[in-house]
Amino acid sequence: LTLTGCAEYSKRVLHDTEARGWEFNQALAKEYEILGNIEQDVMFDEYSAEYYYNKAIRSKEGYCVGPTYLENWDIDEDKLPELFKAREHLVYLLSLGARQVAPKMTARAQAHFDCWVEQQSEGWQEGDIAWCRTEFEKAMTALDVRLGVPTEMPDPTDDDSE
Predict the structure, then answer these.
(1) Which is nearest to 55 in space by CA: 43, 70, 65, 45?
(2) What is the distance between the alpha carbons of residues 121 and 40, in angstroms, rounded to a whole number?
């Protein structure tokens, strides 16, 4: 009951928060709100719903909200390399100005990266993990095209100078 109240309270705060900041901030807030609603209304996961609502509030307030850090989650070791590579690619696109060039698509990519991480941490809803990952990958592919980035990032550990 207490957790239900926390997520619902955060949802109300989100709705009462004045929108500030860039178009990216508002798009990201909307993406996180959608994920929060899914967690609360469909999956009945109040903890995850509150997580998304709180990220949405910060973004809507105009703060720079970045993609989640993998170190903050309990994820099986065999899943981490792919997630680290995905986060690295997302951060790279953010550094190229993706927030300004394609704010809605960038917000979608970031929110679904966080979704993928959150679902992977839970580790049992394979369909939800796949959905989050697929939505992230679709958004990232579109961003790569929009920013003119090769879809295969060079591996910094490869040394072709031999």
Answers:
(1) 65
(2) 17
pLDDT exceeds cutoff 50 at 150:
yes
How far is residue 120's CA from residue 2's CA, in Å, rounded to a whole number?
A: 25
The DSSP 8-state label assigned to residue 15 in this structure reads H
For residue 107, pLDDT beyond 70 = yes
Q: State both tokens at 129.
A: 């993990």
Pair 109, 89: CB distance under 8 Å: no
The answer to whether 11 and 41 are in contact (CB under 8 A) is no
Q: Are 140 and 150 in contact (CB under 8 A)?
A: no
Q: What is the pTM of this model?
A: 0.84
Specify the 3-state DSSP secondary structure of 132: helix
